Fold these 3 entries.
Entry 1:
Amino acid sequence: MPRKRALDAGKLIKMIEDEIPQAEIMKKMGFKTSMQLKTAYMNALIAEGRVPAIKGGRGAGKADKTKEVTVGKRGSIILPKELVASLGIGAKDRFLVRKTKAGISLKKI
């Protein structure tokens, strides 16, 4: 796999802000496709702190804190009151439960 070449983020941003044509920027910076240029520009903006990084991937939607739940004597899953309130779950709500690779899934019906 070829090594990632060093890119002068400030220089790339300056060229784009100075409205230099895309073809010229690609030639000077050594990009073969416009997608490479656009990706490098976005990464440069993130590196300079002008644009916040995009959170993505499997861990993006994880909750801030985990809550411990217990199983009662009769097999009922007991959720903490704060969790129930934050999820907007009511006393008469019904759920579908299924086994997944990660554990279990609850879907409100």
Entry 2:
Amino acid sequence: MNTAILDIHPPILRPMYESDLDIVMGIELRAYPFPWTYGVFRDCLHAHYPAWVLMDAMTVIGYSVASLAANEAHILNICVSPERHSRGHGRVLLRAVVKQLRHQGAHRIFLEVRPSNLHAISLYHSEGFNEIGQRPRYYPAHDGREDALVMAMELLSGI
């Protein structure tokens, strides 16, 4: 991780606004072969799902959308701009999102990840997520469907 970049302009997390969606969609389209639509992001914001953007100086470099109910959170989408990969921003974003969800009352966090996304799986494991199951044929893929690994993290109180 190139921490020098993070030290110059430490990234900050702030709430996502509808005015961010054009930039978020640009990142989403560059990052994923099967991206969310503008409408999905908009609907999540209108439903008051916890959603944040990671800012480096004045630039959105990542984002996350979650759901939270009955002390359980589900990270629905978490992404760093492909141009900013391998600089530690994904870890910064994940840690900030976990902190926010804990602050909002989550006792447990779930997420799904493609088994082919080895970098994300490694990050999630290193941050305390554990594999708890699979969802068959969960994700669209170029050759049909891809399973999802289901991962979870228990949040200990007082941390």
Entry 3:
Amino acid sequence: MAEIKYYWEDFTPGEVAQFGAYQVTREEIIEFASEYDPQPMHLDEEAAKKTFIGGLCSSGWHTCAMAMRMMCDHYLLQSAGMGAPGLDDSKWRAPVRPGDILSLNRECLERRASKSRPEMGLTRFRHTMTNQHGEVKMIIEGSMMFARRTPGAEA
């Protein structure tokens, strides 16, 4: 287990962080789709060309999983994270293709201390995924729960 570097207090509204350099491969797109989302545009390059997407692309769920990996590698595994109550919004803006190099922009939108659990705070983030050309691929918004460095202190 990594040393805890980030607590609820370390995420402040307006703060922005950029991270990741995740390169997507054809093989991983097909492997994920074979297991979890076996639609033609995710499995077969020739069949994908005949769809409105026009070529092989990752499943949106695979795109979410890649974002989660980048979040874990950059900050979640070093945080006093306590899970999440879910996503409020997820938009797949453009197909993720083999060869894309993905990164995330994390913006802290708001945070609040839990009224019922003084040891916890909730932080709402927007994560925007782009590729190496600056094309927006996905935007997700939701809250995460983090332990507080000083439970019950003024927020």
